[in-house]
Amino acid sequence: MVLAHAPGRVNLIGDHTDYTGGWALPMAVDRGTTVELERGGATVELRSADDPQPACVPIDVADPAAVRPAWARYVAGVVAVLRPPAGGRGRVGTTLPLGAGLSSSAALEVAVALALGFDGTPLELALACQRAEQLAWGTRTGILDQLASAAGVAGHALLIDCAALVVEPVPLPDDVAVVVADTGQRRSVATSAYAERRAQCEAAEAVIGPLRAASSADVASLDDAVVRRRARHVVTENARVLDFAAAVRAGDLAGAGRLMAESHASLRDDFEVSTPALDALVERLAATPGVYGARLTGAGFGGCAVALADPASPAPGWRLRAAAAATVTVT
Ligand code: GLA
What we know:
Elements: E1 2-13, E2 23-39, E3 43-48, E4 51-58, H1 72-82, E5 88-94, H2 104-115, H3 122-137, H4 144-151, E6 156-161, E7 166-171, E8 177-182, H5 194-208, H6 216-220, H7 225-249, H8 253-269, H9 276-286, E9 291-296, E10 304-309, E11 318-320, E12 327-330
Parallel strand pairs: 3-5
Antiparallel strand pairs: 1-2, 1-12, 2-5, 2-6, 3-4, 6-7, 8-10, 8-11, 9-10
Helix pairs in contact: 1-2, 1-3, 2-3, 2-4, 3-4, 5-7, 7-8
The structure holds alpha-D-galactopyranose.
C-alpha cells in the first residue's frame, strides 16, 4: 500500500511569466490531493470522491488525451510519462476546489506519480508531471504548478526562476495571513485563451528576444498593440516578482500589497485574463480593513483571488498556510 499526498498551490505573484522563462512566487498550500494505492496489475484503477466514474488506465496506454472520464486523463498522462512496471487499485480524494486556480490538476498528477513509484528530485518530478499534463490535454502549460507542489517548503513562499529552474524559499512572516477567495467561476486552461496568450508572448519574443531580458524600450518598439500589451505585462510582472520577494524579506507588507494590486491591474488591462467576477472580488478584498493587497491568482479567466492580510482582518476566504512538498509513504 502506498499513500501519496501532493499540495495545491497559490501563486502570490508572477502569473503568465513561467512559460517565457520568467519569475514566479507561489507557495504550496495546506490543501491537496491524496492517492491511496495498492500496487500491482497492468491497470491503474482509481476511484474518486468527486466523480462517480473511475479512472481505468492500462499501463501501456497509447493516447492519454483519448481517455475518459476527463479527470482520468491526468492519470493517463502520468502513466504514459512514467511507464510504471505495475499499476494498482485505490482511491483519490482532494481538499482542493477543482478547476479554481489552486492547481488541483498538478496535485493530482504529482500524487499519482509518487503513488506509482516515481523516484527522482522534486524538479524531475515536476518536469515529468508537466509533460503528463501536456500529453493529456495538448496545452503547453508552464512549470509553475507542478514545481510548487513538488518543491514546497512549510512556512515559505518559493521564488522560482523559470529559466534556470531553481527554487529559492522565501520565509513568510508570522504576522501575515494568505487569504484565498473563490469566485465560483470555473474555467479550464485547455478551453481558455491560454494558448493564445502564450503565442502572443512568443510573437513578441520573435521580435525583441527573450522577455525575461527585455527592457521597457524593447517592449515599446513592438508594432502590434496587443502583442505589446502582453509583453508589457510579462516584463513588468517579472520585475514585480523580484520586488515582492525583497519586500517580504524586509517585512514591508504594505509594499508587497501594492505590488499585488499592480499585478492584478496588469493581468486585467495588459494581459486581459481577468473577469468581472475576479475584478469585483479583488476590489472587495482590497477594500477590506487589514488587507495589504489582492490579485487574481493562476491562469485567470475565473477561479480564485489571493490577498495578503493582517491575521485579524475580516477578509472573506480561506486562510491558507504555506505547506511542505508532496510526500509518499509505503506501508
Ligand atoms: C496555469 C499554468 C501555469 C502558469 C499559470 C499562469 O496555472 O499551468 O504553468 O502558466 O497558469 O501563471
